[in-house]
Amino acid sequence: MRYVLALDQGTTSSRAILFDQKGQIAAVAQHEFPQIFPAPGWVEHDPTRLLTSQLSAVVEALGKAGASPSDVIALGIANQRETAIVWDKRTGKPIYNAIVWQDRRTSPLCDRLRTEGVEETVRRKTGLLLDPYFSASKIAWILENVDGARDRAERGCLAFGTVDTWLVWNLTGGTRHITDRTNASRTLLYNIVEDRWDDDLLRIFAIPRKMLPEVCWSSERIGRVTAPLGPAGVEIAGIAGDQQAALFGQLCVRPGEAKCTYGTGCFLLEHIGDAFRLSQQRLLTTLACTTTRKPRYALEGSIFIGGAVVQWLRDNMRFISCAPDIESVAAGVPDSNGVVLVPAFTGLGAPHWDPYAGGMMIGIRRDTQIGHIARAAIESIAFQVADVLRAMDADTGIPCRELRVDGGAAANDLLMQFQADLLGIPVCRPAMLESTAQGAAYLAGLATGFWSSEEEIAGMRGGCAFRPKADRAQMDARFARWHNAVERAKGWHANS
Ligand code: ADP
Q1: Do the domain assignments include residue 100?
Q2: SS3 16
Q3: 168-181 pLDDT, tens digit each
Q4: CATH code of residue 235
């Protein structure tokens, strides 16, 4: 047997998945690593643990499939995005832990830059916002706070990388210092309009250019694994940030094709083609994967609480004992009986962007039952997704014609049917919900000829479609009631 190996380096675990020629999973292994919280709002990972957890997952997956590295044609990487690592180019040793995308320690720096009036420049060049979420302010923090770091960086002794860069550097024995365009587009340093690192942005964040990796295409032969560990000799041929990998894994490669990943939060991305477009709806613009070697763009909107609202009903309310049980509890009632739940547990993300919004349940009556609340929770996920997709439609001027879905909560048929009813378009669920790893595998498999074309890949996918069935006027009325509730939830914590 011959395989493509996908490394799915996530925020809480590293996974390795072997795909066979038919695109089926031959083996999976998953290894967790510690989360480090040195202070409130700070989140770090030990870069060495990221690497060792990833390598041990590879060894385990190969063992499970009874395969050796010589059976693996190519390797693709999908990684947690924005997380920043700085290391010494000579020794390969990190000079500080990885500062994770969730880390908020650089809020004061971002606030200061905002008052200096640079946000518009940053937005026009990167499609992003001036926020601690992205890599640039994290690198700046390391240079300011690690003894001697700035001096060493200016002398060209230090390397910066996102997690893909760190993995490739180590897998190639320090010979390749490289990132792909989708990861570069999340740093706040890459000009996605002109397709290059941007000196103005580097100046704004005071980051020496010498630290930056070379930028490659997401589907490109990068080099072979030289380390005498795990997948020795395997060719690295695919790299993408996890959300863009999932977009490609769902084969959203033409304008108007969109996917939503229903995990803890929900991530929507829509391919918008070859022209940069700045969102008027407070969405992000970012680079998408492509096999054409020309920049391709996507709009992105994130929802903080998606499947997490189901976790909350399970762990805090104890309404259910496991997440999938929500479906049968909700199916016990025909509708939410007027109850609306706004899960603004950590404020609201796109397109509302209200950090002060408060979580809220409204419309409770004497006859309200657990089933109604379960249904309101499921509906709240779909309402939030519909808000983002509507914002995307407003930006592109072309209504999206179908939504492709993945992630843990996409297994919920009731949620998927409600989503289709609400959007009025088909919701397409592939047979396999591993879109992120699939994306990494497809990128590497296409670059090396393991698969011949996107059409060949499309032919081996399978899945089902949920088609809209409900009365349109009734769904519009429910959507209006949701918006009414959202307005009441906004600003709740503003004065507390
Ligand atoms: P992540 O990658 O963010 O950890 P997953 O894709 O593994 O998330 O999905 C897990 C999330 O999906 C959890 O928040 C869980 O509550 C939710 N979930 C899992 N199964 C279901 C289900 N059948 N119905 C609704 N939500 C579910």
Answers
A1: yes
A2: strand
A3: 999 999 999 999 99
A4: 3.30.420.40
